[in-house]
Amino acid sequence: MLGALVAIIPILVVFIGSFKSNNEFLSSGVLSLPKHIDFSNYKTAFVNGQMLVGFKNTFIIFVVSMAGKLLLGSAFAYAINRFDFKLKKLIMALFMVAMLIPAITSQVATFQIINKMGLFNTIWSVIVLNLGTDVISIYIFMQFLEEIPVSLDESAFLDGANYFQIFYKIILPNLKAPMVTILIISGVNIYNDFYNPFLYMPDSNLKVISTALFAFKGPYGTNWPVILAGVIIVIIPILLVFLFLQKYIYNGIAGSVK
Predict the structure, then answer these.
(1) What's residue 171's pLDDT?
(2) Cβ(139)–Cβ(225) under 8 Å?
(3) Helices vs. strands in the chain: H and E counts, helices first
(4) In the chain, where are the structural domains located?
(5) pLDDT under 70 in the chain at which residues?
(6) Helix segments in the chain, DSSP class H
(7) What pairs with residue 222 in β-bridges?
(8) What kind of architecture, by CATH, is found in domain 60-210+241-249?
(9) Predicted TM-score of the model (pTM)
(10) Residue 160 — left, alpha, or beta (φ > 0 → left; ψ -120 to 50 → alpha)?
């Protein structure tokens, strides 16, 4: 009960505040209801904040990044799980070391690489940064791969399928549950990412939803109700996606061999 209240109250504060005027927001309690329900804050946030442009760019980054991340992560996990080769342990150790190094310490080098590649101030800069798979995703895929019998691979191989066909036709269809899990875990981070788009895509035409909200903070103050309205607009799509996909997270792999 306490945990639910901790999670719900901040969202409730944001929702109530989005319907207030700036003066009313600053002079009233955070949970006090607005005197008049006014949707002008939502119109201001959507139009002046260029939310439509932000959603378009965010959608492109999200789809391309997650498609690449899921494909690369599942392929890497398949290779690690099914095959023995030299430097296998070293590669996994390097992934672990990379996780232990704070990302902020490598930002100068990362920026120079992106700039030398000619990707600065393009949408591909953030996409390339997101495409790198992570150890958590790999371990999630490997855990589910343990539940897929090797006999399926062997049967397909005897029927004339090569390793790529086995991966695309047998392994991938059985990895739907971990893919949805990673889609939610990594997808929320990509959807909410502010730092990378702000640093690598400063062009106003390359706004994402997180940098679009930042536009309402100016040198003469901050219009909090408009920002809160923008936050609600941003929350709704990812909330709907989560509600639609959450049932797949806990689904295991069953009945792969009859």
Answers:
(1) 87
(2) no
(3) 14, 2
(4) 60-210+241-249
(5) 133, 217-221, 246-258
(6) 2-17, 22-27, 40-48, 51-82, 88-100, 107-116, 123-131, 135-145, 150-158, 163-166, 176-192, 195-200, 209-214, 224-249
(7) 217
(8) Orthogonal Bundle (1.10)
(9) 0.83
(10) left
In 10 A of CB 211, how many CB atoms?
23
pLDDT score of 133: 59
Q: Which residues pair with 218 in a beta bridge?
A: 221
Phi, psi torsion values for 256, nearest 5 degrees: -75, -25
Residues 230-249, buried b or exposed e (16+ Cβ, 10 A)?
bbbbbeeebeebeeeeeeee
Neighbours of 161 (CB within 10 A): 16
Closest to 197 in 3D by CA, of 99, 104, 127: 127
220 C-beta neighbours (distance < 10 Å), count: 4
Structure confidence by residue, pLDDT tens digits, 34-51: 888 878 888 888 888 788
pLDDT computed for residue 123 by the predictor: 92
Which one-letter DSSP state was computed for residue 206? G
**Per-residue confidence (pLDDT) for residue 155, from 0 to 100:** 85
How distant, in Å, are the alpha carbons of 57, 59, 208, 231, 238 from that of 190? 12, 10, 11, 16, 11
How far apart, in Å, do the first and last CA atoms of the chain sit?
Answer: 43
Task: Find, among 196, 192, 183, 203, the residue nearest to 248 by Cα.
Answer: 183
Q: Find the helix or strand (DSSP H, E) in which 164 lies.
A: helix 163-166
Compute the distance between CA of residue 137 and CA of residue 160 in angstroms, rounded to an integer.
30
